[in-house]
Write a structure and sequence with these properties.
About 30% of the residues lie in helices and about 20% in strands. It is of the alpha+beta class and about 300 residues long. It has three domains: about 130 residues, DnaJ domain (Helix Hairpins); about 70 residues, Sandwich (HSP40/DNAj peptide-binding domain); about 90 residues, Sandwich (HSP40/DNAj peptide-binding domain). Strands 6-7-11-10 form a four-stranded mixed beta sheet. Strands 1-5-4 form a three-stranded mixed beta sheet.
Length: about 300
């Protein structure tokens, strides 16, 4: 499922509003709901696909992450449990007339595992042994969620952090390797580093939500970096050369004559690594032409003369 295009799965455009996405899902869910297709594994798989697609595209934050990082990058940040958390699927099933009883997706996150009144088990569709449902939750250890804050330049190069936390009344620590190019809001998963299982089954997982600190000289946009540079009016008219800071050290930038305020000058490959992919973003020097102030009388006369000549 992770390699598929959620928009194509629901048959909508990438610009589709929320109402259109919900309408498309309801139509497909009604068609492929397991109650209408008993014993049909293809229908169940299709139902799983459209439900996962809707759970992401109906959530503004998840949809924004999916649009920004693509399917592969999104699934590096969100577990299947994360994807379905908060989805309004049960309400939709009620609207369509399917009996629901307890929250139909509660079985993924600790609800009952037995067959429901609808005649099928949601954890059957999504692989009941994968950690969803009450039986799986009792077998596996508890998943843990923590916050991890890193510096701007640590996100650029990658880093390792020792994170201390308290679980089960005990202070513990874990070493986290943070890959280069990671951004705020993205998640890291450490398999088997969560709570221990009382039954001897595998431990749960540990999830870190990343926050990257701001940097005074740079603004990050995806994998690119914006560097603001103020220049004098004379530099804008005649051109010049300036030394500017970048995340990879200072670089000399040639400012062409006649440059306009707001123009961006590209420094190829001086941005962030593309997270989870090869390649590197760029740095852009955004030029702002500053208006001269505190002119002396001589300078005012020169500018006045230029103004009279249409400057």
């Amino acid at each position: 499922m992770s390699a598929k295009d959620y928009y194509k799965v629901l048959g909508v455009e990438k610009t589709a509003p929320e109402a259109e996405i919900k309408k498309a899902y309801k139509k497909l869910a009604f068609k492929f709901h397991p109650d209408k297709n008993p014993g049909d594994p293809k229908a169940e798989e299709r139902f799983k696909e459209i439900s996962e697609a809707y759970a992401v595209l109906s959530d503004k934050n998840k949809r924004a992450q999916y649009d920004q990082f693509g399917s592969s990058g999104f699934h590096q940040r969100y577990s299947q449990e994360d994807i379905f958390r908060g989805a309004d699927l049960n309400d939709i099933f009620r609207e369509m007339g399917f009996s629901s009883g307890n929250d139909i997706f509660g079985q993924f996150f600790g609800g009952g595992r037995g067959r429901r009144q609808t005649g099928f088990r949601m954890d059957d569709l999504f692989g009941g042994g994968g950690g969803f449902g009450a039986g799986a939750q009792q077998a596996r250890g508890q998943d843990l969620s923590l916050e991890l804050r890193i510096d701007f330049l640590e996100a650029l190069t990658g880093c390792e952090k020792t994170v201390e936390y308290v679980h089960g009344g005990k202070k513990q620590g874990v070493r986290v390797k943070v890959p280069a190019g990671i951004a705020s809001g993205q998640k890291l998963r450490l398999a088997g580093k969560g709570g221990r299982s009382l039954s001897g089954s595998p431990a749960g997982d540990m999830y870190f939500t990343i926050t990257v600190a701001d940097y005074p000289e740079f603004k990050r946009e995806g994998s690119d970096v914006i560097i603001d540079l103020g220049i004098r009016l004379s530099e804008a008219v005649f051109g010049s050369s300036r030394e500017v800071p970048t995340p990879h050290g200072s670089r000399k930038v040639k400012i062409p004559a006649g440059i306009q305020s707001g123009t961006k000058l590209r420094l190829k490959g001086l941005g962030f690594p593309h997270f989870g992919k090869s390649g590197q973003g760029d740095a852009y020097v955004r030029v702002t032409v500053t208006t001269p102030t505190n002119l002396n009388d001589h300078q005012k006369k020169i500018l006045k003369r230029l103004a009279e000549e249409g400057f």
